[in-house]
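ugh ok fine here u go
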Amino acid sequence: MDQGMAAVLGAAVGVVGTLGASGLTYLGVRQQTRATGQIEYAKAVWTERAELYATFIDEVEEAHHALIHGRASISALRSALSGRSNETSQEAVDEAEEALASLREAKDLIRAAYKCASRIRVLGPQALVDITTDVVQALNGRLGTLSRSLGAAEQGAEPVGRFLEEEREQASSFTEAFGGFTARAAHVIEGHELPRRAE
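structure:
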């Protein structure tokens, strides 16, 4: 083999080696970039979920407290109306206004929780979406029952006690659903997968 041919073959091997090394470097950088992008995306989703879950929990807790306050005002209204004197009539008006204000506040907070629940439907996971719906429905059920109870109390109707008992049962269902949501949300934030709920 003459020196010219050896030089050409040496140069070809060098070019092939350089191209191979460049190709492998490109593939490695591409894979690393993809992995970095996936990690950044996962972090962004995690952050958005954590903030959204915290906002939902805050809205739900505030709505729950407004419903408790409304329930207490309705009970006080019922007691004030049982007196039926001029002094108790002003107390009854005050309690009715207080109950109505609490129920309006609860309605606004439930609406805000519903908006958060709608965003949770997008971010998931689906197992958390299902329990989120249960929480909002439980709050709405309690609001409806307390609203009927307030109407009955203002009219002096006797089913107020029945409505308050119904709301007490609904509050128990709410507590169970909300506890389930917070436990599942903590699981998701910790990075655990949730199984879908059996229908």
